[in-house]
Design a protein that fits this description.
This is EAL domain-containing protein. The structure is a single chain. The chain has a domain of 170 residues: EAL domain (TIM Barrel), CATH 3.20.20. It has 12 helices and 12 strands. Helix 11 links the parallel strand 9 and strand 10. Helix 3 runs parallel beside helix 5. The protein binds guanosine-5'-monophosphate (2 copies), manganese (II) ion (MN) and sodium ion. The site of sodium ion has 5 residues, from strand 7.
Amino acid sequence: LEMERELAEAIRSGQLVLHYQPILDARSGTISSVEALVRWQHPVRGLLYPGTFIPVAEDSGQIREIGAWTLEAACQQLARWKTMGRHPGSIAVNLSASHFRDARLIDQLSELIRAYGVGKGELTIELTESTVMSDSETSMQTIQALRGLGLSLAVDDFGTGYSSLAYLKLLRPQKLKVDRSFVRDLPDDPDDCVLVRAVLGLAEALDIDVVAEGVETEAQRDFLLAANCNQQQGYLFARPMPAEELSGRLRTWP
Ligand code: G
Ligand code: G
Ligand code: MN
Ligand code: NA
């Protein structure tokens, strides 16, 4: 309860910050998009990571407020980078299941897109398999609405949840993000090698892009490149960092 009260104060008084982690074309080393990750600059406890407060916020319902704040901060940063003559490609925002199911989400997004001049594909929504799979009828409608707004859809932590291949065919997300648990033991674990190649084959057949998460070693990078998985994210390339640190590395724009 103490945390809940503090979190309400944090949202109100601007203690939340976004850090950005680039997703690279590992072949050329250029940044193709960035993922926004929320942090809490706590006045006493220092920089807190989402694992320490997102679960609390999910229980208290504050996750929707955090989500609304995150979406706006990301759109604002996108506009700022464009004004600076820099472009992140696309900014990806993680959306919680309850915010995804919130009836106000689509209006919120369409207002942000208008207010910040967000172009088609410039904002990506990351959803987990369990989020899209639950209540699939309503999910489909929300996904169609997101797409109608020109947003791009990524399935996060792919492979860790319950999902059917039928939903991939139906949803046609732009991106699958292969969970880092499948990347960790590459290239030594033969099962993971087979699994990752299978996901890549499936995605290629459905014309969906694949991002490998949690790439930490050159051996992982090289295995993935050889398997034709160019889009990679992980500590090998960069950790999540404040926007100002990333600005100089973004492609020039227009
Ligand atoms: O750096 P890392 O500790 O940032 O993130 C841990 C987890 O928190 C990840 O699973 C990520 O998806 C989640 N997360 C990070 N930022 C947000 C956010 O803005 N909203 C939601 N719902 N989850 C987030
Ligand atoms: O669930 P989601 O994919 O949104 O989580 C992103 C999380 O993964 C963030 O906490 C981010 O800090 C973390 N992360 C990013 N790159 C790496 C990496 O190379 N190794 C590990 N262990 N975590 C990573
Ligand atoms: Mn993510
Ligand atoms: Na993930």
